[in-house]
């Protein structure tokens, strides 16, 4: 079965570049899906310096997001964005597989 690719939006790549510059070394965004949250699944986002051997690398403009192979089916076709809205600035997952999202924006159901 072929999964649709996960993409890293220009906004997320630009923010990763800014964070890396501020830290003085390259950072990557690890995106994972865990069971839990108010809708059944929740996103876990971490800034990391190294990749795990089984990570799938998603690149845009030299910036990298990482997804583990267990989370990949839940994220198939998703776009990782960075949004700066009235409520705050954050990385955001636009996931076409989610049939319901929680108001917190971190929890979803499939």
Write up what this structure looks like.
This protein is of the alpha+beta class and 110 residues long. The protein has a single domain (7-109), classed as HesB-like domain (Hypothetical Protein Aq_1857, Chain: A, Sandwich). The chain has 2 helices and 9 strands; from the N terminus they run E-H-E-E-E-E-H-E-E-E-E. The strands form 2 sheets. Strands 4-5-2-3-9-8 form a 6-stranded mixed beta sheet. A hairpin with a 5-residue loop joins strand 8 (100-101) and strand 9. The longest helix is centred in the N-terminal third of the chain and has 14 residues, at 10-23. It is globular and about 35 Å long. The model has no long low-confidence stretch (mean pLDDT 87).
Task: Please describe the topology of this protein.
Elements: E1 7-8, H1 10-23, E2 28-35, E3 41-48, E4 56-60, E5 63-67, H2 72-75, E6 79-85, E7 88-94, E8 100-101, E9 107-109
Parallel strand pairs: 1-6, 2-5
Antiparallel strand pairs: 2-3, 3-9, 4-5, 6-7, 8-9
- What can be said about the biggest beta sheet? 6 strands, mixed
Strand content: 35-45%
* Number of helices, where a helix is a run of at least 4 consecutive DSSP H or I residues: 2
Shape: globular
Considering DSSP H and I runs of 4 or more, what fraction of the residues is helical? 10-25%
């Amino acid at each position: 079965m072929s999964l649709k690719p996960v993409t890293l939006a220009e906004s997320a790549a630009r923010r990763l570049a800014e964070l890396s510059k501020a830290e003085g070394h390259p950072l990557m965004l690890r995106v994972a899906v865990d069971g839990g949250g108010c809708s059944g699944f929740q996103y876990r986002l971490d800034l990391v310096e190294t990749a795990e051997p089984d990570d799938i690398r998603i690149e845009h403009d030299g910036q990298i997001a990482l997804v583990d192979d267990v989370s990949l089916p839940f994220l198939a076709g998703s776009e990782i964005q960075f949004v700066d809205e009235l409520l705050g600035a954050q990385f955001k997952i636009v996931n076409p597989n989610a049939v319901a999202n929680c108001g917190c924006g971190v929890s979803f159901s499939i």
